[in-house]
Amino acid sequence: MPEKFQAVVIGGGPGGYVCAIRLAQLGFKTACIESRGSLGGTCLNIGCIPSKSLLNLSEEFHKAKNLSSKGIEIGNIKLNLSKMMKNKDKAVTILTKGVEFLLKKNKVSYFKGFGSFKTKNDISIKDKDGKESLIHADKVIIATGSEPVALPNVEFDETIIISSTGALNLDQVPKKMVVVGGGYIGLEMGSVWSRLGSEVHVVEYLDYITPGMDKEISNEFMKILKKQGITFHMQHKVENIKKNGSKAIVSTIDKSGNKKNFDCDVVLISVGRKPNTRGLNLEKIGVELDERKRIKTNKNFQTNLSNVYAIGDVIAGPMLAHKAEDEGIAVAENIAGQSGHVNYDTIPGVIYTTPEVASIGKTEEQLKEQNIKYKIGKFSFMANSRAKAIDDAEGFVKILADEKTDKVLGAHLIGPHAGELIAEIGVAMEFGASSEDIARTCHAHPTFSEAVKEAALSVDKRAIHS
């Protein structure tokens, strides 16, 4: 007889393992199935965490090369890429083992293998040797994440034509890299390799980068990246990519019909991600998908089958680890009869380049589209004492507030530690705060956070330091 569980989570990424832990905390006999062989999903193994390690290390390398201008003179700086990659891998290993410990601590049964549906309650698990076992579940939560999208007729070899996964594991710095797509993943990885010495070209179909972001921030972001040496080719469509020995040729056509070829050592395709539902046998049990092959769910994350739920990248919404985590907790609490929910209006997005870019709530473009009257408060880091003192003063804070009520509707930052500063605004928005509430809160001096306060003051045209 198969072992019986009250709840089984398929997928051990940020959404899945968090969901499993919360279910166990709520008293359910819970299992978590993960096929990768290590927990943490794309984020921890081949995404957020290793990329942030390389972003940090490449920035340290870049800073070290420029210390002499600030009065710190050292000898020749050399890059040891192999050691840098080992440092990145060490961080990943420690964190994945940490997640495994958390499952054990919370008495979640962890199964290593590929999970799929036999029936809506019976889950098959195949290990790496092909051995199959079966478990029974009263409730099943699908949290299998997403995978990179390739271009038509182009296959990743993760050596010359690479996805974000390959971009984290190059064994040498390419002389020339072409990044297809101006989204946050491509720009983060492009920044890493640019700082380490690669000539980076970004090919983007649209006339702006980071689609969905506030346009003013997007424009400023591109200006800064250009100054850092990244070259942009906007409104260029990729027609094909061909390997030429140990190199690649990227053929494009621009909006005027002009064709251009890019010879490069490596081409990073970063045009988005798609739900990873292959092999789950969803069609066999009748789980409904939408037109983009995402799993359809109701507000309680329940599919058309009453005992099957889905969260994270396999359902609609931004493909972000923290969104998946919040959904994991919400669905666990809903299953327990509580009132779990996710406020999709206050999910922050962060790009971990230098400077960082962060966003929460509505953009100006969205407010205009929805005919919502708003006020803007802006403050430049050039006028922030802490930023100027450490010579890290590019960018600004922008707060959007309702014209009548002054309620904060959104905020968009580009500058030092933007990913941390956005949290203050997230808390304010969750409490329905006005820009005046932020402005009248005492902020320590000298800190980067004073720029948030000044932007809030600026909404009412009373900023002090600009």
Structure commentary:
This protein has 466 residues and is of the alpha/beta class. It folds into 3 domains: 3-147 and 274-342, FAD/NAD(P)-binding domain (3-Layer(bba) Sandwich), CATH 3.50.50; 161-271, FAD/NAD(P)-binding domain (3-Layer(bba) Sandwich); 346-459, FAD/NAD-linked reductase, C-terminal dimerisation domain (Enolase-like, domain 1). The protein has helices at 14-25, 41-46, 48-65, 81-105, 164-167, 184-195, 215-227, 282-285, 321-335, 364-369, 385-389, 418-430, 435-439, 450-459; strands at residues 3-10, 30-34, 109-112, 114-117, 122-126, 132-142, 146-148, 161-162, 176-180, 199-204, 231-234, 236-244, 247-254, 259-264, 266-269, 273-275, 308-310, 349-351, 356-361, 374-380, 396-402, 408-415. The strands form 5 sheets. Strands 1, 2, 3, 4, 5, 6 and 17 form a 7-stranded mixed β-sheet that branches. α7 links the parallel β10 (199-204) and β11 (231-234). The mean pLDDT is 97.
Short description:
This protein is α/β, with parallel strands linked by helices. It has helices at residues 14-25, 41-46, 48-65, 81-105, 164-167, 184-195, 215-227, 282-285, 321-335, 364-369, 385-389, 418-430, 435-439, 450-459; strands at residues 3-10, 30-34, 109-112, 114-117, 122-126, 132-142, 146-148, 161-162, 176-180, 199-204, 231-234, 236-244, 247-254, 259-264, 266-269, 273-275, 308-310, 349-351, 356-361, 374-380, 396-402, 408-415.
